[in-house]
Amino acid sequence: MGRDRPGRGVDTSGGVDQPAGMAVGAQDLPDEDAAPPRARPLDGRRALLLVAAVAAAVVGPAYAVNGATQAPAPPAVPVVLPDAPGPAVEAALDAVVSSGPTGPVVRVWGAGALERLAERADAAALGVGAALVAVVLSALLRTTVAGRPWRRPQARALVLAAAGVLLAGVVGPAVTAAAQRASLDRLGLGDAGPQLVVGGPEPWAWAVAGGLLVLAAAARRAGQPGRTDR
């Protein structure tokens, strides 16, 4: 009779319902939110990106502020000299033109702190823009390698990267060029005098790069599957 009593060491479930076995199996399931092992080697790269972001954000603006407040030499505006300047322009050029690393430059004597700062706006914008892009790359590495490339913040991160590109390649150089033209005008060299030399890629190239990042952000947001957004 004792053998007919259920519940004492006898499996009455017929092998269908096994809570203990299911508990063990649940412990063996991988955590979906845990990063795979291959994400570990990228921690050093992400750290380097963040260090580069901090360095760029500090060095660029510091260079501009130092030039505006501490640098004893006047700002140097790279120019292309006219072929046949008038007598007045030639006399003015003789007083302010000197040789620079890449060609003739106009030394802007008497420039104030604000004028000096504006003429180094491209360096400050480059530092801040590079810092934004480095931070975004670090975030994208973390989410993509972790197996979650469709997280919603990635679209916003791409827009932030586009802002950094436009700031570094379009806004900063535009402010610097406007300040340099104003300096030449103040020296009486704006109309028939030397032409500014713009270094680096053309602004439209930076604008195209920023536009592509915005399009990538829009495409990522539009194609974002809700079932995989964890």
What would you say this structure looks like, in words?
This protein has 230 residues and is an alpha+beta fold. It is built from seven helices and four strands; from the N terminus they run H-H-E-H-E-E-H-H-H-E-H. Strands 2-3-1-4 form a four-stranded antiparallel sheet. Strand 2 (97-99) and strand 3 (104-107) form a beta hairpin. The longest helix is centred in the last third of the chain and has 34 residues, at 153-186. The two termini are 56 Å apart.
Compose a concise summary of this entry.
The chain is α+β, with helices and mostly antiparallel strands and 230 residues long.
Provide key terms for this protein.
230 residues, alpha+beta, 4-stranded antiparallel beta sheet, 6% strand, elongated, disordered C terminus
Number of strands: 4
- CA-CA gap between termini: 56 Å
Please write the string of helix (H) and strand (E) elements: HHEHEEHHHEH
Percentage of helical residues? Answer: 55-70%
Please summarize the sheet with the most strands.
4 strands, antiparallel
Number of H- or I-type helical stretches: 7
Structural class by helix and strand composition? alpha+beta
Q: Which residues form runs of ≥5 with pLDDT under 50?
A: 18-30, 226-230
Please tell me what the overall shape is. elongated
Radius of gyration: 31 Å
Strand content: 5-15%
Mean pLDDT: 75
Give, in spatial order, the strands making up the sheet with the most strands: 2-3-1-4
